[in-house]
Design a protein that fits this description.
Helix 5 packs antiparallel against helix 9 and helix 6 crosses helix 8 (288-335). It is built from 12 helices and 11 strands. It has 3 domains: 5-110 and 438-506, no CATH class; 115-194 and 383-409; 210-346. By secondary structure, the chain is α+β, with helices and mostly antiparallel strands. The protein has a 4-stranded antiparallel beta sheet with strand order 2-1-4-5, with helices on one face. Strands 9-10-3-11 form a 4-stranded mixed beta sheet. Strands 6-7-8 form a 3-stranded antiparallel beta sheet.
Length: 508
Amino acid sequence: MKKTRENDITLQNVGAISHAVVPLSDEGGVTVFRGRNGCGKSTGLDTVSTLVSGRGKLPPLRDGQKTGLVAGFGSRIDLRLAGSRRGGGKPELVVESIEGKFSIADLVNPNIQDLKAADKARLKALITLLGVEATPDMFVPLFESQEAFEKHVSKSSTETSDPILMAERVKRDIEEKARIEEDRAQRASAEYDAMTVGAEYDPADIIDDMTAYYAELDAANARLNQLSSESETYHKVMRNIDEAKQAIAGVDVAKKEKLIADEQALIDARTASISDDEKAISETRKRIEELQQYITELEEAVEERRDKNHVSHRLIHATKSELDSLEGYKKIVAQSKTLKAVDADELTEARRVVDSFRAKLDRSAVARENQRKQEAAKHALKHAEELRDNALYLRDTARQCDVILTGLIGADSPIRIVDGRMVVDTARGSTYYADLSDGERWKTAFEVVAQHVHRDPDKIAVLTIPQVGWESLDPSNQNLVAELSKRYKINTITAEATDGELSVAKIA
């Protein structure tokens, strides 16, 4: 059933238009402002777009008029002169009750060269249509807990009501955390590589029971020390024996003993002479003045004989010491009969055993150190893998921000968000929306918009297409837009240049 005239859009005293009606219906279709340049079709379409979208240029008041009106589907723009300055002036437009709507042209072609920025504008248009405001709760489910969310997303990133901006910030924070984890994983991998260089070892080199091994090493060392001590004692005694034999062989004992006896006799004789001389000295002192010279000579003779006695005493002492040494040498030579030489092969084997113990101990120390390095390297590798897994998890979580935005568009929407770009599935596979043909973009746009413009069954769905957008479509795509408008029961309003006065007519 067709809606009454109160649901049409009325334009009165707007720009060059004195009065015009844009028909609307439940069945949808395309309505076109037509006429020559300057007749008001662009103003009419812009005015309808402002009424529909709630934004854009304010419609101009018709020259010479004090009031104007744009009204339809419960929304209106009242235009009136608010007053004039002294001496005249331009009228001030007062706009009342503009309800926020949506223009499908913003989705099909936002007139932005950068493709990603264009898709962002398209997404912004859709989110505006939904009237959704972002809250941190939208993104908390990306993580296992509120605490995990707050750990990865800064509070400042959620201080906005714009879903797109919040999604960008949340995604940026998560990706930054992922980059940090990736850097840590790279450092852990480098640490693993450094640890494994030169850390090869033979497990057989590792000594399991160090207490028992050290006991064996101590026993081997004790045996070696015993043999070494015995060998050293033997060789020292043998050297002493050789020296004693040489000393004994080089001494004429009888001659030395005769020398001692002769010297002793001389000492005895000199001692008796000294006694007589001292008596003579005592007697002679009485004649000291006459015999002073003689006394001096005797004293010198006595001193000389004493010196010789000292020499004889030293010679006797040295000779006795030498004879005593000969007795010691004889005892040493006698000991040689009880000594037994250490077997050289046995001593060599003892050294070999100790050396093998020490070598194995060294190898075990190296092997244990390399084993420790490899265990640490395994831990570093495992840590690197955990960091990489966490980075992948964070990367995937960041991508889920696009899923949340896709969910805002609608579960049945053919458009989804991938890395900030709008993507649709076609026979060619996943394709950027911006890369679709004009016809494909219009068809997809109607499919997306149709889910939302009919949310209130009591309101008529209205969309606008700028004149340049409509005229850029070839006839086949114009027919496609008309067909889609009918299919989705959307009133699509546009404009095109023709000869003649302004007219507003439904063409399909």
